Amino acid sequence: MAQVSKKLGLFERVRAVCHSESIPIPGVVVVGDQSSGKSSLLENISGIRFPRSQTTCTRMPCVLQLLSDPTVGEPFAEVSMDPSFADATKCSVLDVEEQIKKATTKHATGNQITKEALYVRVVRREGPQLSLIDLPGITHNADKMEDIHEVTAGLAEEYIKREEMVVLCVEPAMSDFGNAEALKLAKKYDPDGSRTLGVVTKCDDAANAEECDLAEKVGMVRESDVRLALGYHCVVNPSQNDVNEGRSREDHLAKERTVFTESERMRKIPKENWGIEASRG
Q: InterPro entries, alphabetically (predicted)?
């Protein structure tokens, strides 16, 4: 797979890979442990709100299609259980979160995990064009569902093993990449990491930690580091407090820049390896 060019934000890196390899839609699957920041990452990329509460987090695969159409006036969304969007519910982009909650409650009852996918199509006058699949996080806590680890890990494996998929492995900055189950699954089916991009979340935790080897992990400089041909990209997702306080995207991007530029430790991470949007320079 062609090397992704430098000085690109996360979305541009993903789009470049898909374009260079003629990856069909859907071609990008987002995997990671529960609470790794997957849904927040999708929200950050797409500008669409996703459910975040414990009872309505990702419990079913969600295929998100982002489309642009210069003839469109007001942006809109369509939500359906059918990939052809038959009998789709049309709504404003502000109502997508509520529609996902309703579908989750109906099709993944009792906090269960289902393999049945929900399809969400968002059409705007301009913006990114990409399809991403958000999967339930790989979970070990069996409080809600006895075989939850088998189901969530199996679902991730089912998508990762498809050779047409680009895999976004989402890992918190302070996690042990060598023991990360999502990365292990990706390496099983993509040994050289030629279609796997590591996305590192919660980098603000790393900036504030007493000890952190994030720059080394991202740089893959040690023999023990998990190597991916596409490498790693670091981001800071909006916190729940940011969402509750209604902070703007511009405020959040400024916060992200601060995390990566004001700490000597974080400045070791190359500029092309961080930022939810394309870096400038």
A: Dynamin, Dynamin_GTPase, Dynamin_N, Dynamin_stalk, G_DYNAMIN_dom, P-loop_NTPase
